[in-house]
């Protein structure tokens, strides 16, 4: 599938902000045999006084900006064209859950895709007793790692209600779990903790979701903003697979990857500090337009 993407993120301040430093991660990745960034651009208003590009630990391109002078709003607009390849559906070569620790121990790499980075707590995902208890329903099952990942994805989709008014970007997984409501970030965070509680490496994926459904298909939830789903390590042979608990589907050609991380803190599209007081209003609009 070939897509044209557009993203508008804006911040409107009650009182003009100054000395604003931000890091942006909004441009889709190029991934071998998965997706290709054909062209892309980012426009920032007001124009930054300083701007530099770098690659973070997880090998994602990021942009650092500084806006010194007072400004009442910050606008970020990204446009890109991306080719997304369909992924073959193979046999389940993932180990039984009880055998997974052996395969993790046999992995000596600590590169960005190593499962060791995605097992324990991370900045936004502390160990949570209630979610660990929730995970126990899969602990004694004679299922493969991949089967458990699919089962957890389906159960969270069943138990939780998509409700964009129930949570905010700062809602903790524990709060979202108690509410059983939220958005893609909440669904993904709860699923990640559930899997990690079982000893299954899992991480967070930030990206875009196709907004125009194929003929006869319903529109997928969460398509009017950046989307999030889950990456699960299913053993040395099966490797990483991606599941979308918000919609209970595997990530496919409708899903366009921007960044991989341990949780939202590693992949936030905009993060930073500024000098101001009062409130701010955030706006976001996304269009994912299929071309063929």
From TrEMBL:
Gene3D superfamilies in alphabetical order: 3.10.620.30
Start and end residues of each Transglutaminase-like domain: 176-247
SUPFAM superfamilies xref list: Cysteine proteinases
GO molecular function, one term: peptidase activity
UniProt keywords, alphabetically: Hydrolase, Protease
GO terms under biological process: proteolysis
Domain of life: Bacteria
Keyword Translocase part of the UniProt annotation: no
Protein name: Transglutaminase-like enzyme, putative cysteine protease
Origin species: Rhizobium hainanense
């Amino acid at each position: 599938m070939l897509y044209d993407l557009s993203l508008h993120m804006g911040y409107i301040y009650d009182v003009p902000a100054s000395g604003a430093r931000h890091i942006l991660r909004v441009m889709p990745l190029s991934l071998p045999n998965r997706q290709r960034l054909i062209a892309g651009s980012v426009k920032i208003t007001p124009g930054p006084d300083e701007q530099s590009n770098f690659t973070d630990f997880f090998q994602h391109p990021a942009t650092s900006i500084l806006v010194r002078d007072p400004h009442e709003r910050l606008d970020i607009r990204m446009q890109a064209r991306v080719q997304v390849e369909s992924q073959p559906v193979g046999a389940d070569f993932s180990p039984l859950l009880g055998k997974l620790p052996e395969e993790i121990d046999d992995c000596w790499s600590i590169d960005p895709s190593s499962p060791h980075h995605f097992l324990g707590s991370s900045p936004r995902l502390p160990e949570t007793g209630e979610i660990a208890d929730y995970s126990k329903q899969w602990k004694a099952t004679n299922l493969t790692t991949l089967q458990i990942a699919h089962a957890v994805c389906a159960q969270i989709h069943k138990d939780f209600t998509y409700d964009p008014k129930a949570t905010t970007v700062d809602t903790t997984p524990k709060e979202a779990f108690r509410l059983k409501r939220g958005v893609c970030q909440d669904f993904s965070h709860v699923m990640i903790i559930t899997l990690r509680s079982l000893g299954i490496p899992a991480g967070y994926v930030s990206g875009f979701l196709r907004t125009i459904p194929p003929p006869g298909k319903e529109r997928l939830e969460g398509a009017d903003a950046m989307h999030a789903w889950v990456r699960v390590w299913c053993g040395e042979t099966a490797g990483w697979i991606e599941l979308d608990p918000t919609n209970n589907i595997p990530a496919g050609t409708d899903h366009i990857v921007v960044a991989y991380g341990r949780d939202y803190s590693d992949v936030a599209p905009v993060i930073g500090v500024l000098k101001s007081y009062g409130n701010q209003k955030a706006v976001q609009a996304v269009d994912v337009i299929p071309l063929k």
